[in-house]
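User: Design a sequence. Structure:
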């Protein structure tokens, strides 16, 4: 998938390919699939797309409207499933994606479009994130102006502060719009209430968890989400000679991992229980980052439990059977 075009490869046996380049426009996509429809019904088609961000939106929209099965797969998954390969071009990549889909058709997880309100919240969160980054990039230079002469420093501060004030206004407007969207949808509103009831989990972390889990439906298990967010520890050993440390994988959603890290730092200051857990493990000689990672996993488990059981977090929970 590219901005202006995408390379398509059609196969019936995993070997022979019917290839062409298609314009990445609504008209180009419609024309290509109308030609296919003359030979195949849409129910016979299985489409596999390499995840390419916003460049896939037009194609996904057409496929969803016409109820064509589609799998959005990561490039790493496709590449590693095919062993050692040499050479790369858009045409070669299209063939490899088609071969991957043909071989693994029984294992493919088909994509389902998110609800419109989730799409809106996701877009606003992405915009907010870019504005926050821009604010940081302008704020840091102001703090670093001390060695410069007073006249130059005042000039820089004047222009930076005007831009920062404008960015802060935009961030507030976006946050107000996000809050309005949350209030307008009962399901998102309830899930937000359950998730943010866990000490340390704020609105931004909770919203991102709702988006990345597909409202806790696409990823419905806390352990799978921990793996997705890069906080699940994995063993590294082989035979009797290799005994590596258990560690997390870098194949993860790093944005979600960062948010969970900040949530963990917050939780060990606002939750006496987690603060006691953290201090106890550090006193025992555990690595501080390993203990923080354990706190991240605790937060994930608690959020999933609260959302799936539809109840707020209770600090002193008493089991009904007890």
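Assistant: Done.
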């Amino acid at each position: 998938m590219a901005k202006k075009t995408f390379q398509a490869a059609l196969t019936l046996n995993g070997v022979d390919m019917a290839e062409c380049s298609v314009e990445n426009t609504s008209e180009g996509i419609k024309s290509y699939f109308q030609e296919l429809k003359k030979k195949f019904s849409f129910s016979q088609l299985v489409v596999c797309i390499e995840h390419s961000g916003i460049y896939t939106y037009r194609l996904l929209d057409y496929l969803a409207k016409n109820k064509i099965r589609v799998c959005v797969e990561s490039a790493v998954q496709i590449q590693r499933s095919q062993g050692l390969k040499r050479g790369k071009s858009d045409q070669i990549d299209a063939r490899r994606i088609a071969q991957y889909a043909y071989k693994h058709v029984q294992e493919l997880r088909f994509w389902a479009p998110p609800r419109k309100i989730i799409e809106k919240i996701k877009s606003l969160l992405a915009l907010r994130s870019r504005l926050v980054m821009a604010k940081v990039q302008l704020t840091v230079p102001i703090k670093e102006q001390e060695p410069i002469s007073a006249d130059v420093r005042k000039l820089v501060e004047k222009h930076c502060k005007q831009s920062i004030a404008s960015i802060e206004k935009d961030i507030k407007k976006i946050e107000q719009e996000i809050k309005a969207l949350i209030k307008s949808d009962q399901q998102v509103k309830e899930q937000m209430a359950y998730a943010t009831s866990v000490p340390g989990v704020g609105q931004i972390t909770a919203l991102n968890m709702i988006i990345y889990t597909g409202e806790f439906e696409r990823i419905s298990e806390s352990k799978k989400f921990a793996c997705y967010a890069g906080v699940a520890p994995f063993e590294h050993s082989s035979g009797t000679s290799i005994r590596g440390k258990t560690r997390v994988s870098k194949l993860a959603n790093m944005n979600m991992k960062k948010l969970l890290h900040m949530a963990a730092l917050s939780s060990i200051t606002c939750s006496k229980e987690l603060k006691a857990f953290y201090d106890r493990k550090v006193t025992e000689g555990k690595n501080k980052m390993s203990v923080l990672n354990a706190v991240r996993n605790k937060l994930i488990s608690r959020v999933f439990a609260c959302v799936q059981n539809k109840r707020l977090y209770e600090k002193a929970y008493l089991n009904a059977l007890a």
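Residues 200 and 262 are 8 Å apart (CA to CA). The two ends are 56 Å apart (CA to CA).
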